[in-house]
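Researcher: We're teaching a course module on how sequence relates to structure. For the next exercise, students receive a sequence and then see the predicted structure as tokens, so they can try to spot secondary structure elements on their own. Here is the exercise chain.
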Amino acid sequence: MNFKEIKELIDILDNSSLTEINIENKGSKVCLKKEKEIITQQVTAASGTPVVTANSTTPQSDIAVETPEDDAKTINAPMVGTFYKAPSPEESPYVKVGDKVTAETTVCILEAMKLFNEIQAEITGEIVEVLVEDGQMVEYGQALFKVK
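Model: And here is the predicted structure for the students to work with:
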């Protein structure tokens, strides 16, 4: 399977009530799982102390997710694979802290089953933190970069 086919499977999973897709094709296996996120609401008690209560659960598998603590967004891994910050060890990284990115900017490569997939930012902003190391294995949905 190529990156585009896997991305289509992710979109199908996102837009359905399914929580898992397993596909085996020509010796390749792909397993996509949708995690559940607990939505919380902060309520202030009579004493003025914040109390956090869970309201509901909703499926989550976004590429870019907002993080409330600092208004940053994350660029998340659209697949399981090995993270590479540059096209080769001799070349400079696709992006580094302080770089501006657009939705079409290539930010890294994820290697999966000997296929090297260029990953686009899919959001616009400035890279404020690289969250993984070069050569590190990443999970589907794992945050790779913080963007403001």
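Model: If you want an answer key for the exercise: Residues 3-14 form the longest helix (12 residues). The first strand starts at residue 20 and ends at 25.
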